[in-house]
Amino acid sequence: MINPLPIATHSGGQLCLLPQLANRHGCITGATGTGKTVTLQVLAQALSDIGVPVFMADVKGDLSGLGKAGSASPKTSARLAQLGLPEPAWAAAPVAFWDVYGELGHPVRATVSDMGPLMLARMLNLNDTQQGVLQLVFKIADDHGLLLLDTKDLRAMLQHVGENAAQFKTEYGNISAASVGAIQRGLIAIDEQGGDRFFGEPMLNIEDWMQTDAQGRGIINILAADKLMNAPRLYSTFLLWMLSELFEHLPEVGDLDKPKMAFFFDEAHLLFDEAPKPLLQKIEQVVRLIRSKGVGIYFVTQNPLDIPDTVLGQLGNRVQHALRAYTPRDQKAVQAAAETFRPNPLVNTAQAITELGVGEALVSFLDEKGRPNMVERGYVLTPASQIGPISVEERRALIASSLVAGVYEQAIDRESAYERLKGRAVQQPQAAPAPAPVPQPAPAPADDNAWGASAGRSAPAPASTSRPSGGARMPQPQPQPAPQPQSQQDQGGGLGDLLKDAAGGIFGSGSGNRRSDSPLQAMVKSAARSIGSQVGRELIRGVLGSLMKKR
After folding, report:
1. How far apart are CA 50 and CA 29, in angstroms?
2. pTM for the whole thing?
3. Region (Disordered): which ranges (predicted)?
4. Which pLDDT belongs to residue 218?
């Protein structure tokens, strides 16, 4: 059994989090400037020390101090003396820095298909109709084996579906062009906020966030979120995707001696603001069930009422910092926050919430039987790591020495929906049927002719093996059968059939002796062999069409 983790202290002793119950989730709440970040730092480092990997979002940049050992200062020394506590053993925690933009940490990426239409609709702020169209686009891509990896894949797929809406209508239903356009506009906005760097490969391997160092301490993964907070929907959707990844990939383990991972969700109100009902239900399901997979989720926000009741009721370990009650609405919020704690006859919870100082908090952790302890008023301990951010040079050094250094830095762009759809659009003109009727000779011995196919049947000229007009190899003449009926003549195909027989129709009546070709016939055939591009083929068709009209 692992010893309890001291988080705060009060007159009756230490207030400790039990490691075996740390997966029962929790919350850290309080107004700005009351000490939530330091509480988060103390709790994260305590979990790391017992081998629990941690993930947290660093909204202000202060949490980077976890990567550097703290030191005594006049302020900390005075606080320790006031509380009658010894100086902590100053030590840094093992950290790994991550950044969606790849600037302040290792890049973090996810694929569009892995994100899924529900979360993507939340990110794009789509209505129900637009979300339905987006789900159809994902379904069509799956049915046709088209990978959606990045935003350009999704844009290409939307364009393809919009242009072929009539074709998909029977099987998939109506596809509104207006909805397709709205989704396209939303993708442009997301790309401007950094979505073009977030969506792609290599996708994050969730196991890379669940590592320990050589001393057995859990790695604290810190996501640089100061810039990401400017795109709140991208931020909240990314963290929700992370929870879903943990939920889907981790096995059921029940209650362990310590969690397999702890997940701290700062600015948690962004997750629930304007969230549609299906998304709220998904969040509630993940929070309720992920406990049995050994993951503890801790929401960090200003007011516990920012969290829906269905989620708040599952958070057993709570730390409440001061709230300010300047208005009647604030006073109601304070009263509601006080009612979320188990009452203590020695503590007036509602009054204490407004009187707490910086670094002081109301604390209630679960006891050995999983019951909430009575609320206690205490002081959060001083962290062993540095309070405040580290320098840019120190951050770079920690990034370079990380266990995953060099794994995610280089983006990969493999063949996916964009490449396949664009390639199909380029190749489509080559597959057009020959408009002119051509005679189809009977099979002959397999002697290669000037078109690269067996003598007696034409084949398209390969675009990459053009020959000079004067150097074409002429085959030996072969006996030709009588022309077939009109119903069989239309079976010829390819550019070679078109040009060979069209030239024969213009300059002769189909003589089988190629040595008797006129100079003009030879010129046209040679030019057709040497032209492989789409523009060249259209030019030849135009020339032959003009000659045929003159006849």
Report:
1. 24
2. 0.75
3. 421-521
4. 97
